Amino acid sequence: MKQRVITAVIALILFIPVIFIGGVTLDIVAMFLGAVAMSELLIMRKKLLISFEAIVSMLAVMIQIAPNKWFNGLPAQLNKEYVVYFLVILLLLHTVWSRNRFSFDDAGVLTLGMLYIGMGFNYFTAARGVSVYMLLFLMFIVWATDSGAYMVGRKLGKHKVTPISPNKTWEGCIGGSIIGVVIAGAFAIGFHVGYANAFSMILITIVLSIVGQFGDLVESALKRYYGVKDSGKILPGHGGILDRFDSMLLVFPIAHLFGLF
């Protein structure tokens, strides 16, 4: 527990200033985090980090996260989505020339991971582009929901949500969403994070809180499938980048879908 607390404090001391600085600094940090998250998936898949598929998939993730203005020099018909598509084609071609070392299944897993991680961190930086308070609001939904679900589940949890994550209970999920709405809602009111009315704020915050818990369950299923406890070891006591951002990777794209940024 002491190690977890120390790691969390150090991570926040380093990460929170980057959020407030924003701009190119945040873009570069987000690209780095996305590449690390992709490397964790590669390792779980038992793929070398120094390999053609690793370079292509991590490059595709970073391109998705990079600001659109970095690609202004490309021809009008060639945006960064087409560049990512071209990299996917390279992965498919790699299945032909790798002598079965790299299969179509491998290409499919890495392509899905590229979209999942790349889009999640892309909308992470897009939220900061609106305001630091919008980004913090969305992060508070995740943090408050996770903490609330843990505390309520530990005290009152009796009914398991799924065998994939035996510590998750329905009582914890409901309690976590309630706490997430209260804390994030108070933050939204205090910092005037944009909602047309209180009802919209409560409804969308509930949905994002639930989506965040789905993200956590997806990551649990992924780790269970590959037989690992944590996605990585970059954060002592907390696991990897995928472990820390699993909920946010789903919350940010859905928040964009709701028109929050």
Automatic annotation (TrEMBL):
Its main location: membrane. It comes from the Bacteria. It holds the Pfam family CTP_transf_1. It catalyses: a 1,2-diacyl-sn-glycero-3-phosphate + CTP + H(+) = a CDP-1,2-diacyl-sn-glycerol + diphosphate. Keywords: Cell membrane, Lipid biosynthesis, Lipid metabolism, Membrane, Nucleotidyltransferase, Phospholipid biosynthesis, Phospholipid metabolism, Transferase, Transmembrane, Transmembrane helix. It is found in: Cell membrane. Its EC number is 2.7.7.41. InterPro entries: PC_trans. GO terms for biological process: CDP-diacylglycerol biosynthetic process. GO terms for cellular component: plasma membrane. GO terms for molecular function: phosphatidate cytidylyltransferase activity. The chain crosses the membrane at residues 6-36, 48-67, 82-100, 107-126, 132-152, 173-193, 199-218. Pathway: Phospholipid metabolism; CDP-diacylglycerol biosynthesis; CDP-diacylglycerol from sn-glycerol 3-phosphate: step 3/3; Lipid metabolism. It is a multi-pass membrane protein. Signal peptide: none annotated. Belongs to the CDS family. This is Phosphatidate cytidylyltransferase. It comes from Lactiplantibacillus garii.
